[in-house]
Amino acid sequence: MMPQQVTNAIFVVPLALALVLCFPPATTAGVLYPQFYDFSCPQAKYIVNTVVSKAVAKDPRMAASLLRLHFHDCFVKGCDGSILLDSSGTITSEKRSVPNRDSIRGFEVIDEIKSALEKACPQTVSCADILALAARDSTVLTGGPSWDVPLGRRDSLGASLSGSNQNIPAPNNTFQTILTKFKLKGLHIVDLVALSGSHTIGNARCTSFRQRLYNNSGNGQPDFSLEQSYAARLRVNCPRSGGDQNLFAMDPSSPRKFDNGYYKNLMGLKGILSSDEMLYTQNQEAMELVKRYAGNQSDFFDQFAKSMIKMGNIAPLTGNHGEIRRICRRINN
Ligand code: HEM
Ligand SMILES: *[C@@H]1O[C@H](CO)[C@@H](O)[C@H](O)[C@H]1NC(C)=O
Ligand SMILES: *[C@@H]1O[C@H](CO)[C@@H](O)[C@H](O)[C@H]1NC(C)=O
Ligand SMILES: *[C@@H]1O[C@H](CO)[C@@H](O)[C@H](O)[C@H]1NC(C)=O
Predict the structure, then answer these.
(1) pLDDT tens string 175-205
(2) Ligand 1 atom with the shortest distance to the CA of 273
(3) Which of 74, 81, 279, 333 could be a cystine partner for 127, CB 3.0 to 4.6 Å?
(4) CA–CA separation, 290 vs 262, rounded Å?
(5) Is 299 in the pocket of ligand 4 (CB under 6 A)?
(6) Are 124 and 117 in contact (CB under 8 A)?
(7) What domains can you pick out in the chain, each with its CATH number?
(8) What is the CA radius of gyration of the chain?
């Protein structure tokens, strides 16, 4: 070898290696893709779907609850299954945060999926991926759009109670605060409006919207952006005090159907949460999107699928980060 060639080899080989490490091909660490379990656990998607279908047949609200679990997982430390951990040792569970307590549900269904997967393919499919698949299946089962779920997430070794309290939007946050919370996760106004359409299924408790019915701004007046006959109906089972946990369909016209009824409600000032109605009343761009989705369900469905994939991509653990939990409620060992 000529000295020049030797010098080249010394530089070129490490450079190529460095490039591969910095920009891995799409099929290795760092990037999620739908075929992730095609060889290691080809039945994974089928197993998830079977258990979710059975659970939703038994309890129709479960579809909404599983969809929300994925959202509350992804907004805290990324989509890493952190929401599933119970308190123990150094871990303080996210289940007791303000947005989650007395409200988030579906953990038993995730446990059942996990134990079926552990029998079929031990320690292969992450709890974080189970949440992403269950959210998609729940959407499809209630009549919504389908999409290929990118996979390959791994599970966290910890949880964040403070992250759960701070990052998940509250129903009485201002529009700007909610938009900021989405932007901090790399999501935009179009994702906010489309993903809020999840509220076409499922329930809210009286405590989540009571403020709007009685004393909205501390002035003893209700929220006038809530249609007044609808407000009167809500007051029947959501009194000034008591009944905090009473449940209300978020889309009373079709509570179990994933459709664009949510946006039609907003246009009629019948959004149950303040955070819902504000999409129509506080921002021009959001209002245009509400009108568009109210007028064209396939536009809503297309964007919903795209935004779910984006939300599912929030800071996943991949490669050798985190672990594959054997039981979703606790870290291994
Ligand atoms: C934009 C900000 C959001 C706020 C402020 C918000 C707030 C809420 C609140 C307060 C409830 C009722 C909880 C209760 O009273 O027990 C709820 C329910 C629900 N949320 Fe959201 N949410 C937001 C976005 C989302 C997103 C992005 C998704 C999913 C992608 C989602 C899915 C759901 C579902 C499906 C339910 C019903 C759950 C059930 O019935 O178990 N939400 N949300
Ligand atoms: C929002 O609701 C929480 C919980 O009910 C309450 O403590 C807080 O004062 C409310 N914030 C505003 C701005 O109304
Ligand atoms: C409304 O809320 C404000 C501030 O929290 C309070 O001072 C006032 O007494 C309340 N009014 C009524 C009618 O409940
Ligand atoms: C709804 O949007 C879809 C896709 O953007 C379009 O192909 C369709 O023509 C629209 N339908 C109506 C009724 O506007």
Answers:
(1) 999 999 999 999 999 999 999 999 999 999 9
(2) 10
(3) 81
(4) 9
(5) yes
(6) yes
(7) 44-167 (1.10.520.10), 187-311 (1.10.420.10)
(8) 22
Six token digits for residue 248: 């209300």
Of 289, 298, 302, the one to substitute when testing ligand 4's pocket (max ligand atoms within 8 A of C-beta) is 298
Task: Using CB atoms within 10 Å of the CB of residue 190, give its burial: 0 to 12 exposed, 13 to 18 middle, 19+ buried.
Answer: middle
CA distance 207 to 246: 8
Which ligand is in closest contact with the Cα of 299?
4
Tokens of 49: 């779907």
Asked if 122 and 81 count as a contact pair (C-beta separation under 8 A), the reply is no
Instruction: For the chain, list the strands marked E by DSSP.
Output: 203-205, 247-249
Does the beta carbon of 215 lie inside 6 Å of ligand 3? Answer: yes
User: What gap in Å lies between CA 100 and CA 168, rounded to an integer?
Assistant: 10
Specify which residues 155 forms β-bridges with: 323
159 three-state secondary structure: coil
Find out whether 158 and 141 touch, Cβ atoms under 8 Å. Answer: no
Task: In whole angstroms, give the CA distance from residue 134 to residue 214.
Answer: 37
CA–CA separation, 275 vs 170, rounded Å? Answer: 8
**Distance (Å) from CA 201 to ligand 4 centroid:** 23
pLDDT digits (tens, 9 = 90+) for 246-258: 999 999 999 999 9
Write down the residue that tokens 């964040």 correspond to: 160
